[in-house]
Design brief:
mainly beta, 203 residues, elongated, four-stranded antiparallel β-sheet, 2 helices
Length: 203
């Protein structure tokens, strides 16, 4: 019968050999030394370890106590966590003790790193834009802050043409009359509504 020790903090179990029946034919590999575990085994953070190799990622000392913390998927002893790892969430100003997001030179709770626009969706692992110290998803940033095309009036997310005191999608900068595109070096004039008229139509 295996001795089982529950680590309540991270929801994992510590086993001593022999393994439970369903594990007897599985060769466990220590995450620390990459060697097969033939005697005592510790399971934590979804990994298997020799007890002597379950060490703090900061000070490298063995973690013998039941309580430990996690940083980037690796164990951290309480002393190092308090002095080196823990941080204050930029949104709620409370201590970040579990899942952490680092972005824009700040630390955030996972659930607090959200779009500063109307959608409020979580942005961890997604493309975002920064404005006035806040992250924005692509859709909200374009809707709120991206320049609007002088032709189609939609946001411009990438390269834009500057002409007639406006920004334009390249494909939208065309003659108002004949609808033909106006090249970068082509001559044109503007009508009263500041819309381009090509040289041919402007004669």
């Amino acid at each position: 019968m295996a001795d089982i020790y529950s680590n309540r903090r991270c929801g994992t179990l510590w086993y001593r050999r022999p393994y439970p029946p369903h594990c007897r034919n599985i060769a466990a590999i220590c995450f620390g030394c990459k060697e097969e575990i033939k005697d005592k085994m510790l399971e934590a953070l979804d990994k298997s370890w020799h007890p002597e190799h379950f060490a703090c990622k900061e000070c490298k000392k063995r973690i013998a106590e039941n309580k430990f913390h996690e940083s980037e998927g690796l164990p951290v002893c309480s002393k190092c966590f308090e002095s080196k790892v823990q941080a204050i969430c930029a949104a709620c100003r409370k201590l970040v003790t579990e899942k952490v997001v680092k972005a824009m030179g700040k630390t955030w709770h996972l659930e607090h790193f959200i779009c500063g626009g109307p959608c409020k969706q979580q942005l961890s692992g997604k493309t975002f834009f920064e404005r006035n110290g806040k992250p924005y998803c692509t859709a909200d940033y374009e809707r709120l802050y991206a320049p609007k095309c002088g032709g189609c009036k939609k946001p411009i997310a990438e390269k834009a043409l500057s002409a007639l005191e406006s920004k334009w999608h390249k494909e939208c900068f065309k003659c108002k009359l004949c609808k033909e595109p106006i090249g970068v070096d082509a001559k044109f004039r503007a009508d009263k509504e500041k819309q381009p008229i090509c040289e041919k139509c402007g004669v």
